[in-house]
Design goal:
single chain, mainly alpha, globular
Length: 546
């Protein structure tokens, strides 16, 4: 069942701007509203704590900050926040996306703080469960904040009056609270999987494993990840492509999904807290972002099957070269490279013999024979048509497309909203946490868990070819493996940062960003709206690059 948010909550429980939030004016009236001293009111308040997740997961602006600007995803022709991808001098504190994400995350944290305060005051039958859920969500939101901004404003109390002085809290203190909150969630949340997107004990354990790995506690992370693998109700798919089929897009019914952000076919249930700074209101939008520009090409027109191409993001050449097209299911399960003619009337004079294939984008190089065969029949775009030898992009409109998020079940070709749930934590991550967490202390067990995952991802009959040896067990190979497994899933920037590999790998594999990125870019600038709002600006000196 989808988490239903009362529309009244969406209206009354909204702060109007970043400055308003940072002053912490209690505009919602929660302190005095008697409704929020009742079990129904508190339940609605807890539900509201989930809603900001739909601003981040399955959404464009957050993907600009988590998928692009990395070694595996870069800007396509339609990208809307190119300074973030390029780390250019235009990426400054006044970046609109940056300011929006900051405001949204702190709104979410304040919702959680307020809900936890009310849960202490109101007797409810499921009080402990709701405390566990909200504690998890606060930890989850703070993880995004502390990784992006490091030393930053921190509070666990609800807004009371106007506060214009922010506190600059060190990273360790924020992580202490994250772990405390996760322990509360583990102790109080139910263990069943099917909770309609609500937090479970397994989600809390899995996220804690991710956090332990982030903080360098590899063995502890591996222990917890193994518990989720071996005792939890999760199972790897035999077919990686089927994992992403719309028939398996409901997170609660997908055996690989530990936790997800739910989206509904009833788009009234997909609304964010308000429309501020939103282009697309409601629904998972990633199907738009990764679709290449096909609908103006010979033999093609826009349709539901091929999607509405916003053409925002594309794989780097390095990402494509990581894929084993013969042995690894994740190639066919993650990418699209053939477009079938759907508009014969649009073939034009250049392609009179087009009968089925209209576009073929090749992860490799077309032979002279393949070029000759395509003449008059269809277009070919191989690596040399899209990238230079150094990986620089020369065609940002036609390329091998990341296709995990497509939705051919949308009601019309113009529909921008998908009901696909956004998968936030999958069981495959736990295998990779074990491998990374134990690669130094117990490489034999680490290799075993890594190969268990790789055999499962093998094309049937190619399992032996997918196995790796102890010599492959290092952080760079594991980052390569995480790229193959999670490309586009809004995790890459965090992975590169926590491993200290952001600058090195972006310089090596993303020519759009390589000339500009430096170690200062491992942290984001404090937003200008925040700096303008506080009185103690000296406690928040702007970061070097911004």
């Amino acid at each position: 069942m989808k988490i239903k948010i009362l529309i009244t909550i969406l209206i009354t429980f909204t702060f109007l701007s970043c400055e308003d939030f940072l002053k912490e004016t209690n505009k919602s009236g929660l302190t005095s509203d008697p409704y929020y001293t009742t079990p129904d009111g508190v339940e609605s308040l807890v539900n509201a704590c989930y809603t900001p997740l739909r601003y981040w997961y399955g959404r464009e602006e957050a993907s600009n900050f988590t998928a692009t600007g990395t070694d595996i995803v870069t800007k396509a022709a339609g990208h809307t926040n190119t300074p973030v991808n390029d780390y250019s001098t235009d990426f400054k504190a006044d970046n609109g996306g940056l300011n929006n994400l900051w405001a949204w995350l702190y709104k979410a944290i304040n919702f959680c703080n307020t809900a936890l305060a009310r849960l202490e005051e109101v007797e409810m039958e499921n009080n402990d469960v709701r405390v566990g859920e909200v504690s998890f969500l606060r930890a989850f939101y703070y993880w995004h904040v502390v990784e992006m901004w490091e030393k930053t404003h921190f509070s666990t109390g609800e807004s009371q009056g106007v506060i214009t002085t922010a506190n600059a809290t060190e990273v360790n203190a924020i992580y202490d609270q994250i772990f405390d909150d996760l322990d509360v969630a583990i102790a109080n949340c139910p263990g069943e999987k099917e909770r309609g997107g609500r937090i479970t004990r397994w989600a809390a354990k899995a996220f804690k494993a991710r956090m332990l790995l982030t903080r360098g506690q590899g063995e502890d992370a591996a222990t917890l990840a193994k518990e989720v693998i071996n005792s939890g109700p999760f199972e790897l798919f035999d077919d990686y492509e089927a994992l992403w089929d719309m028939s398996n897009s409901e997170g609660s019914a997908n055996s690989e999904v530990i936790w997800y952000v739910n989206y509904s076919t009833d788009h009234l249930l997909n609304l964010e807290l308000d429309n501020e700074a939103q282009i697309r209101n409601g629904g998972n939008n990633l199907h738009l972002m990764y679709a290449m520009k096909y609908d103006d090409q010979p033999g093609m027109t826009r349709d539901v099957l091929n999607g509405r191409p916003f053409n925002r993001y594309m794989p780097t050449r390095f990402m494509l070269e990581l894929m084993d097209q013969e042995n690894d299911q994740r190639w066919a399960g993650s990418f699209k490279w053939i477009w079938i003619m759907n508009a014969p009337e649009n073939r034009g004079e250049e392609y009179p013999n087009m009968t089925d294939t209209a576009i073929w984008t090749i992860n490799g190089y077309a032979t002279p024979g393949q070029r000759a065969r395509a003449e008059g029949r269809y277009q070919i775009f191989d690596l040399s048509d899209v990238y230079d030898e150094d990986g620089s992009v020369k065609n940002r409109k036609q390329y091998v497309q990341i296709d995990k998020f497509s939705d051919p079940t949308r009601a019309s070709k113009g529909e921008d909203r998908s009901s696909r749930d956004a998968f936030v934590i999958r069981i495959s991550e736990m295998y990779l946490i074990v491998a990374e967490g134990l690669m130094d202390s117990n490489p034999t067990e680490a290799l075993d868990y890594l190969n268990r995952l790789r055999r499962q991802r093998a094309v049937p009959g190619h399992e032996a070819a997918m196995e790796v040896t102890a010599g492959d067990l290092n952080i760079d190979f594991l980052l390569d493996e995480r790229a193959r497994e999670f490309v586009g899933e809004q995790l890459r920037w965090f992975d590169l940062k926590r491993t200290g590999k952001l600058v090195e790998r972006v310089r090596a594999h993303n020519p759009d960003a390589a000339p500009n990125i430096n170690e200062g870019h491992t942290v984001r600038p404090y937003p200008q709206d925040f700096l303008d709002a506080i009185t103690n600006k000296d406690d928040f000196p702007q970061r070097e690059n911004y």
